[in-house]
């Protein structure tokens, strides 16, 4: 199964960290494959990394596709609520906009089609409608021409959730090219974020495989490969480790202090996140009066462009050291801020040289548990909470948190008066979530987090082999049918 041309498709930038900055490309080339990045982003893999790429310059999806994609999502969530008798699913929906006549008309149209199609047959109609809309675009023809010119044997899509990928994958399928989608994140399946339909799917774990089969009955078990995710592979790469002295010097830290990482969230997930940083600063200040020598590393959410933390950081600048993720803004939108390879080293060493992480419901629990470090999840309301601001408690009710093997898989702080004591107990090795956190990590991300890239390549080769056999069988079947008709 050598000398195959594989298009690694980036409909957006979320897959860069997994499939451009890890060993993924090198492993594919070692197996004898030609790796070409089919790049729909503003990030140039050729200029930045020297990789062979085919740029998609036409980014225009059908203007109705975002509306129908929202309709699809709402219908799927409605069906899940009804099927599983679970009121968690409506909480995945974003509120409709009634700001201005245009938004009012779009909202009314969207709600009408949701109401008319809230059934299994309805969701099929909507998916077909989305595909029809995208096949009608110039982008579809553009991508089809690129595929005809370069003739890849397989298109590997690095995320299943981007509307920008629909026309490109349809073009591949219409040309008989095998398509594979990687399910990008641990919470995506229950949230109705499967935008594309491909020949095969790569998922993190047996749990995610079961979810795909549960929520998408049109997907057969034979189409799913459990591979793990390259997301956590860098945490097992010892070559990324800096000594404590070098790390502290590089980022202006005091090597005599023990540091706690505050990992920031996006504004949607945790709109009052800055006040949790303030609470941690108060706890640390109190502990320092008791003989501890602590500081805080604040690592913001890479796509958070707000200034909401600034006042808290300024007041606590003697305690809080800001170490921003090394991401590169290519444009002005949140989805035009791209990760860099250098950030993998930074994150590795932040995990390595801090005592614990605190956060609101992020998968950073797994980044830190990979380094045998504890995680505190904030789970209490802030007094600034008022009507129209999202309560973070909703996050922990989501389906993906039901994968926890026990309540001890993370340390929940349910009242800010508990925070100081929880931090103290972790520092004094009287409290930890590491044992059960590792079990949770295995449930979510699979049993071999260091082998994900290798396993994905095995899956890709299986897909190529299966598709080759399928084409041979189709050819035999057509010949048989022709012979029968002659008879």
From TrEMBL:
What are the boundaries of the region Disordered?
Answer: 468-487
- From what superkingdom does this record's organism come? Bacteria
This chain's protein is named UDP-N-acetylglucosamine:LPS N-acetylglucosamine transferase
Species this chain originates from: Flavobacterium degerlachei
